[in-house]
Design a protein that fits this description.
- The structure is a single chain.
- The chain is mainly α and about 130 residues long.
- The chain contains 7 helices and no strands.
- The protein has one domain: Cytochrome c-like domain (Cytochrome Bc1 Complex, Chain D, domain 2), CATH 1.10.760.10.
- The structure holds heme C.
- Heme C binds next to α4, α5 and α6.
Length: about 130
């Protein structure tokens, strides 16, 4: 009788845990990766570089500032100033979004300068495609 009670208790605890796990296991909102491929033909490739090789997604999210400014903010600033993100990523132009934090971003030029010009264009198009 005792054994059954223990087993029953164990079953209840187990089923509770399972339910909790299911709740916690829910995938968080996926990053917005839909791109307008007509306007930004390289954006799809840029998205891959951004999340993969470039490791940019560690510090940049679409609409919130994390370690780096949001892609929307970057897109907005660069549109306003008619500046080139691709040039910036090749170390050819000065920061315009948050110059005080430039040192943190600058470390990534090792990666972006090693990329092809087309890859830098792809990153630029991806960032623009995430702007409003
Ligand atoms: C370690 C964190 C980190 C990573 C990784 C990172 N960034 Fe940044 N990024 C920052 C910070 C911090 C800033 C703000 C400083 C600045 O504006 O230069 C920034 C700024 C920028 C800007 C705006 C530059 C300007 O004009 O001010 C662009 C564009 C950018 N990042 C693109 C990228 C791309 C593309 C990658 C991937 C190759 C990347 N970042 C990876 C932290 C990061």
């Amino acid at each position: 009788m005792k054994t059954i009670a223990i087993l029953a208790a164990a079953a209840i605890i187990f089923s509770c845990n399972k339910k909790e796990n299911q709740d916690f296991g829910k995938p968080s909102e996926p990053e917005k990766t839909t791109v307008n491929s007509a306007e930004f033909p390289l954006a799809e490739k840029g998205a891959e570089l951004f999340q993969g090789t470039g490791k940019c997604a560690t510090c940049h999210k679409t609409d919130v500032k994390v370690i780096g400014p949001s892609l929307q903010e970057i897109a907005q600033k660069y549109t306003e100033k008619k500046a080139s993100i691709a040039h910036f990523l090749n170390g050819e132009s000065d920061p315009i979004v948050d110059p005080t934090q430039f040192e943190v971003m600058k470390a990534n030029f090792v990666i972006t300068k090693a990329m092809s010009a087309e890859d830098r264009q792809a990153l630029e198009q991806y960032i623009y495609s995430q702007g409003k």
